[in-house]
User: Fold these one by one.
Assistant:
Number 1:
Amino acid sequence: MRLLLEYDFSMELYYQVLNFAMIVSSALMIWKGLIVITGSESPIVVVLSGSMEPAFHRGDLLFLTNFHDDPIRAGEIVVFKVEGRDIPIVHRVIKIHEKENGNIKFLTKGDNNEVDDRGLYKEGQNWLEKKDVVGRARGFLPYVGMVTIIMNDYPKFKYALLAVMGAYVLLKRES
């Protein structure tokens, strides 16, 4: 009888670990699918500062696309990465500089900022190019990203939340 109980427990633990692995791999597949569908390396981002208020607030979740055939226009909200900075920036295109050969350079600014973003770009860079764009804002959910901000601001909370979720998945019994 004892051998049977140990076998049942080990099999159940095995199935729970397998279930957890399937959840994680499903989430990764969904993320990769979104990357392919949207054309953006990061199809979902969280607004981390108040520089775009009143259009977007800290904690808003933005949905991005990045189709290279779409021209960038003044007034459009883009998410861009600058060399030397890890975190993408969400700001509005305020000026377009189009060359005769069709290449486009543009300047950005946060709606709530006094000056343009030239101070944020790498040294000597005055304009952004299409290669700097991670995506363009197509929609948003207000304040949904606050969970991400809280987890970044309080790492212990993040680890506790992950531990509770992991324990729940591993210890939950199927009925």
Note: The mean pLDDT is 88.
Number 2:
Amino acid sequence: MATPRVVATDLDGTLLRSDGSLSARTRGVLAGLDDRGIQVVFVTARPPRWLDAVADAVGGHGLAICLNGSCVVEVATGAVSQVRGFDAATLTAVISDLRSALPGIALGLERPDGPIFDPHYASDHHAPPSAPHAAVEDHLDAPVGKLLARLGTMAPDAFFAAVEQVIGPRAQLAYSGAIGLAEMTAPGVSKAAALARWCAAHDVSAADVWAFGDMPNDLPMLTWAGTSFAVANAHDDVLAAATRVTASNDDDGVARALEGLLAP
């Protein structure tokens, strides 16, 4: 395979180990790519505030596509750009319809400047204690990259199906692995779309991109990239779609696949 110009990798379940850590082996490989001028792009469902743990792993020019493609973040500085959020009127209607169709639903907003959650929203995903808790429809005065939804009284699969039926084409539902959490972005917003847009702006073709992932929200990115890798622990659909399979996230699969690029 030709040496890539860009390595695009998901974080949770892919580059990071199951405990959320980045191994010394993986850090060494990322540093080696940086030394050779191969651009590393983290492509993640995480919001910008969750990048602190990896900020020192991609050199001085590391980049992250966050919120499933809703914004681009300079990892070293935290600067946010290329925000692709919901239309406020459309989001207002989606929120109203979800509340009507699914009584008791708890909603959250992920904005580049921080999250906002319904008072009854319960999260096990590192919601900062300082995050405002209020009816989310009263906080649509800034771009919203992702709408979150939970309903503990429904099984996850049934809940996702119900949410998808309510939102229709007005939002895009993604599954990144958090059980019972429906994650919605604006139509046309995805990891693949954001990565393709960034690559086009930097004269990088899909053939020059290696992409790594583990969950269904990675599939569009994996099918777009010239070379795609599923980690061994990936969802079955991802294992079937990727052009190659590497070791699991806990066995440094991404690093193993990239180490050959660093050989003398």
Note: The CA atoms of residues 77 and 133 lie 28 Å apart.
